[in-house]
């Protein structure tokens, strides 16, 4: 993973939340929230919370006496998430590294993480930290994207942007968000971290956007793909967005667009 893959700053949080969240994250956040709430936890830790889409979905489902600690490595994203969330005395916001959690052992009933594990520099260490802070019988609930070829818009955008930089194509989407999709590897790394039971489900959904332009802007300007484009030639960001728009429109039409998305949902315990 490139260092720029972890940088969610500047205008990225706003584009991410207003465009990427409804495009691909909202439906999976609702699923994850229902899954976590089904365990009736008294204490929940969320890592890699991003712009807070899971937090907004999960908080209304938790018990009135629940404690909910929401963390992210990137303070700008955490600030944005906190600003979006209504006043809720059960929620504490804290910048934290999922690989070195500043919490006591056995402090939570559930640790959840939406599309964050792909960014962990050492996933086994991150999983071991999740297990450390879980109480006996607690659950680690998270999801990761399937391979890029199973995610229509991400694949189209990656191919389109590559045409601008044929000698050095930006590969953020394929490399990081969609680079950790081998379910056998996921299970093996969880077991190395100390989990004895692992359940993995692959769930297909449909991504919707008002237009091809909205979808292209979300990926090109609301993710660290933007960092890669600007590092090569910042003046080409509008053209990259245009190319991505054309690629999506050619496959999905010029009006409202819909495309397949697919992810793995994992529950680990024991």
User: In angstroms, what separates the terminal alpha carbons?
Assistant: 30 Å
Largest sheet: 7 strands, mixed
Provide mean pLDDT, rounded: 94
The proportion of residues in beta strands is 15-25%
Structural class, judged by helices and strands?
alpha/beta
The level of helicity is: 40-55%
Q: What is the 3D shape? A: globular
| Low-pLDDT ranges | none
> How many beta-strand runs?
7
Q: N-to-C SSE series? A: HEHEHEEHEHHHEHHHE
Radius of gyration: 18 Å
Side by side, the strands of the main sheet go 3-2-1-4-5-7-6
Count of discrete alpha- or pi-helical segments spanning 4 or more residues: 10
What are the SSEs and their pairings?
Layout: H1 12-37, E1 43-47, H2 53-58, E2 67-72, H3 75-84, E3 91-95, E4 108-114, H4 123-133, E5 134-145, H5 152-162, H6 172-175, H7 183-192, E6 197-209, H8 212-221, H9 225-233, H10 237-252, E7 257-269
Helix pairs in contact: 1-8, 5-10, 8-10
Describe the fold and architecture.
It is a single chain. The protein is of the alpha/beta class. The protein is 42% helix and 23% strand. It has helices spanning 12-37, 53-58, 75-84, 123-133, 152-162, 172-175, 183-192, 212-221, 225-233, 237-252, and strands at 43-47, 67-72, 91-95, 108-114, 134-145, 197-209, 257-269. The protein has a seven-stranded mixed sheet, with helices on both faces. Strand 2 (67-72), helix 3 (75-84) and strand 3 form a beta-alpha-beta unit. Helix 8 (212-221) crosses helix 10. The two termini are 30 Å apart.
